[in-house]
Automatic annotation (TrEMBL):
Residues 348-374 are annotated as: Disordered. Belongs to the 'phage' integrase family. Residues 364-374 have a biased composition (Basic and acidic residues). GO terms for biological process: DNA integration; DNA recombination. Gene3D superfamilies: 1.10.150.130, Intergrase catalytic core. This is Site-specific recombinase XerD. It comes from Phaeobacter gallaeciensis. Residues 168-340 form the Tyr recombinase domain. It comes from the Bacteria. The keyword Disulfide bond does not apply. One of its GO terms (molecular function) is DNA binding. It holds the Pfam family Phage_integrase.
Length: 374
């Protein structure tokens, strides 16, 4: 028997006497039924697999470089426990810096990072430059204890200020915009937007609310981003919206048109299609975002006279009342119910104002007084 050897490949007979061939580095198989051992096709397949493996090897981050620091951080438990939205954000930041990932760690210092920060602001935006800065701070923070870098040089980089006249990142919605969007959305998307609007939570949190987290009309959950516990009363408005949603067998309160839990990407795609359609038709002003609904609840509560502590407790903003593994705090739930009642009252006030400003039809008798409930 003639034996064939190819560098980097494992060629052997299996227990049935059949010849097998695998690339050692990638374990990729050479199909010997299509490319017989020793044939021109066989050597061509080996060459192709070896070239692809070398190309992939070149893409791997090198130790002692900025890319190596990224790889070390992405393997950290801290990163793996982040919300999907934050993971996407950090991966995006790493992608923005891919052209300089081979920069040796020994050359990194604050002046160099400040120059990179300036360049990113010119090429992309002040906001993206600041987000990359924040990402680098996290990477360096976790790489210092490992001895991979000596200092957190990114902390010395001064954040770019918001340019004057720049629109608010997550502007509040008007009452009419809320109603217009909900009426135009599909039943599943409407339920998701209503959940964000009526709970004041981040979209990534609201999409993940599970049915087993509801107890006595309260949703108990820790926020993904901050690990802060939340006790969110289900208002009558939200209850009505959820009743309109199609029944689903998902473990989550919300489900996509497939009847499965929403993915963030799926929700974002559905939202973008709806937003562009409504903007093109002139039915809503530019700048609407789902996260803006969270800001809308906070704004309405402030205008209704609620203090920052009451708003923070309901929106789970840096509250230390409960941690991620929280116990159900009845006092907080009662407090948040009162805050939610204030929000419901503010909703009704704005609904009446919108109704009087934009009546659906004119009264048959022009002299008849229009009462709030008509």
């Amino acid at each position: 028997m003639t034996f064939v050897r190819v560098k980097g490949f494992k060629i052997f007979a299996d227990r049935h006497g059949q010849m097998r061939c695998y690339h050692r580095g990638t374990n990729q198989k050479v199909d010997l039924t299509k490319s017989p051992l020793g044939s021109v096709e066989f050597f061509a397949d080996c060459a192709r697999i070896s070239a692809a493996a070398e190309a992939m090897k070149e893409l791997q981050p090198k130790p002692g470089t900025l890319g190596g620091l990224f790889a070390a951080y992405f393997a950290e438990e801290h990163y793996l426990e982040l919300s999907d939205a934050t993971k996407r954000e950090y991966r995006m930041c790493a992608e923005v810096l891919k052209n300089i990932r081979d920069t040796p760690v020994t050359t990194l210092d604050t002046p160099l990072l400040a120059a990179i920060h300036d360049e990113l602001a010119k090429k992309h935006s002040w906001d993206k430059a600041n987000r990359v800065r924040n990402f680098l701070i996290q990477v360096f923070r976790f790489c210092i204890p490992k001895g991979l870098i000596s200092r957190n040089f990114a902390e010395g980089v001064i954040k770019k200020p918001r340019p004057k006249g720049t629109p608010e990142a997550y502007r509040t919605w008007t009452f009419n915009e809320v109603q217009t969007v909900l009426e135009a959305a599909s039943p599943q998307l409407r339920a998701a937007l209503a959940m964000i609007f009526c709970t004041g939570q981040d979209p990534s949190d609201a999409l993940e609310f599970r049915k087993d987290q509801v107890d006595d009309g309260v949703i108990w959950k820790g926020r993904n981003k901050t690990n802060v516990g939340a006790a969110i009363p289900i208002s009558g408005i939200l209850e009505g919206e959820l009743e309109k949603a199609p029944v689903n067998n998902a473990e989550t309160l919300l489900a996509s048109s497939k009847g499965t839990p929403w993915t963030y990407d799926g929700f974002a795609s559905a939202w973008q299609r709806l937003r562009k359609k409504l903007e093109k038709a002139g039915k809503v002003a530019p700048g609407l975002t789902p996260k803006g609904l969270r800001h809308t609840m906070a704004t309405w509560l402030r205008e209704a006279g609620q203090d920052e502590r009451e708003i923070s407790d309901l929106l789970a903003q840096d509250s230390k009342v409960m941690g991620l593994h929280y116990s159900k705090n009845a006092a907080l739930a009662r407090k948040n119910r009162k805050t939610m009642q204030v929000w419901e009252g503010e909703y009704e006030r704005r609904a009446q104002k919108a109704k009087l400003s934009n009546p659906q039809k004119k009264p048959s008798n022009p002299d008849k007084e229009i009462k709030p409930n008509e």
